Amino acid sequence: MSEETKALESMIGEEYKYGFTTDVEYEDFPKGLNEEIIKELSQRKEEPEWMLEFRLKSYRAWKEMEEPEWFNATYKKPDFENLLYYSAPKKRPTLDSLDEVDPNIRETYEKLGIPLEEQKMLAGVAVDAVFDSVSIFTSFKEKLAEAGVIFCSMSEAIKEHPELVKKYIGSVVPARDNFYAALNSAVFSDGSFCYIPKNTKCPMELSTYFRINNMESGQFERTLIVAEEGASVSYLEGCTAPMYDENQLHAAVVELVALDRADIKYSTIQNWYSGDEEGKGGIYNFVTKRGICKGAHSKISWTQLETGSAVTLKYPSVILQGDHSIGEFYSVAVTTKKQQADTGTKMIHLGKNTRSTIISKGISAGESNNSYRGEVKIGKKATGSKNYSVCDSMLIGQTCGAHTFPYISSENASSSVEHEATTSRVGEEQIFYLMQRGISEQDAISMIINGFVKDVLKELPLEFAVEANKLLDIKLEGSVG
Amino acid sequence: MLEIKNLHAVVEGEELEILKGVNLTVNKGEIHAIMGPNGSGKSTLSKVVSGHPEYEVTEGSILFEGEDITEMDADERAHLGLFLAFQYPVEVPGITNKTLLREAYNTIARANEREELDPLEFEDYLVSKLDVIEMKDEFLNRSINTGFSGGEKKKNEIFQMAVLNPRLSFLDETDSGLDIDALKIVSDGVNKIANQDNAIVMITHYQRLLNYIKPDFVHVMMNGKIVKSGDISLAEELEANGYDQMQKELA
Fold first, then answer.
1. Is A10 domain-assigned?
2. Has residue A133 been placed in a domain?
3. Domain that residue B147 falls in
4. Are A293 and A257 contacting, i.e. CB atoms less than 8 angstroms apart?
5. For chain B, how many structural domains are there in total?
6. CA distances from A351 to A348, B16, B46 (A)
7. What's the pTM?
8. Whether the Cβ atoms of residue B114 and residue B62 lie closer than 8 Å to each other
9. pLDDT, tens digit, 9 for 90 and up, residues A227-264
10. Number of structural domains, chain A?
11. Residues of B with CB under 8 A from a CB of A
């Protein structure tokens, strides 16, 4: 191994900064999963009857399903009988008073760089903070309400806006969609809900910050975003977790609904704990994310920066039902150490003249395995539709893997699908070239990586692009700022 | 300016010597040409001098302005004013030429305690150098060498040389892959950059480059060594008789 590769390897795997735990008292809840547990969960959350029915139906469906194994990753399957399906800090805050939030939890968010006090927050960003199973606090609610925007925890939405939740929940990702979606539908504990009324541009960025603290709990959050005709919103989620030797399960479902001319931009910065050098511990990130462009001329755009988790299985997708609708997927997936990621997207074209763009950048280092899996399907009626896909992989060192699995099908002749894929190694030649021009080794690596992911990171909301760059640098380049 | 003494080098981790005792002295204001057949070690010499990590110096030394740079990293050598125009310029997608050059220029300025240029000043400076190589300004905003033709890559190397204004430049087969018009533009550029305070070492197979850039010294490299040195007439002799003939004479 040359000096360059050694330096690269040593720079990778900077210690995880968010691995601390918060000492809080939890409400007791039995482990394991059965109908009684679900009833208890629903009861504690004071849910209406229809919600309990939804959960039980999902649970029965889940019981009959097989855990999937088709992806390019191997891991010890979660023990579903030994999981905590509900874990809430004992001191429940009333949702509109920050003073009642457990000071330890407030401090946790401070440490994570997510202060909950509105005056300290990023200007123009409203935050919903989810701690283990429950939403702790949602900021800027009143300001959003003035514009008619509803932004609250899912639990609250079920109580306060049942007609909206009932109409849309499970409409994009049905409970039977897949094993983990069914599980989530049965036991989801909280998450964010947002509703943008007709012809309204959401006045600020919305964001949810997910934190898993309890060692034995799974996190099953559920997010639902509905943009009415002519509405637009930009939403961002961030995730971290403490370092535990045991794997923890995170199985979320996100549903997006865009009506005529609506525009939803959903960005993710995922930095769950990824396990240690030996591959011990870390989060299983098994997430179903799907949006539907229901109306004509609507648009849904997914942007993700995936750097954490021991195992990631995630395919944010768009169903392009409305004519002239647009689906986009911009992804940077970084794997180091023994991380495994199998991620990509699905673009299902149903409406006429629909367009989709996929730009996926995978960076693998260490002994990690990084796969892109993407499906582009153009239906019979989706005449004049177009897809453009680019999947680039970059390898750092000799012991990692990168794979691309594209599935493409088109059922009409007037549509076109274009797929490009490249694999490159962060070459010693590239590093030497830049160093020969006077640039230090670390800056050279940083430049090469930033150049590689630029097309994706420019899609992130401005407030987070800087954060994203920092995270990449920490993840891949140690002290390089 | 540059003094190479009995330089031996191998590919890191391997035994086979590629450079087998090179001696070369270059003074400021001079232009040297190193010629030689394929596999003679010419390109390796330029990489070893500029600090390519793939090679390991096993014996001898490289002095630059009296300072021993044999063990220095490539970026430190660049800070001292050493430049290599690559035989195969490397593509770096997503980073523009302009960004690279501003980073490079300012990093070198910092290392030499000279004033850095802010983006606006640098833009003016950069544009002022475009003429050297008849470069269109759109090149500044393109990703480094990405999608460039062979000729454009070579021109870009000389443009970078003009911007960074090095004291000593190695041009590694800058003429290969250039058509006659491009060769003329590139050569004119090099001639504009060459002055009494800097020095240039050209590495080439062919004499035709020497018709455009007149060297003060010509060296012939064979089997990892400089076997003969002289003036331009040496290149003419090579062109007429070939390397084989010279090898026989030397043997």
1. no
2. yes
3. 2-250
4. no
5. 1
6. 9, 64, 59
7. 0.79
8. no
9. 999 999 999 887 666 666 677 788 999 999 999 999 99
10. 1
11. 12, 50-54, 73-75, 77-79, 83-84, 86, 89-95, 99-101, 103-104, 107-108, 111, 143, 160, 164
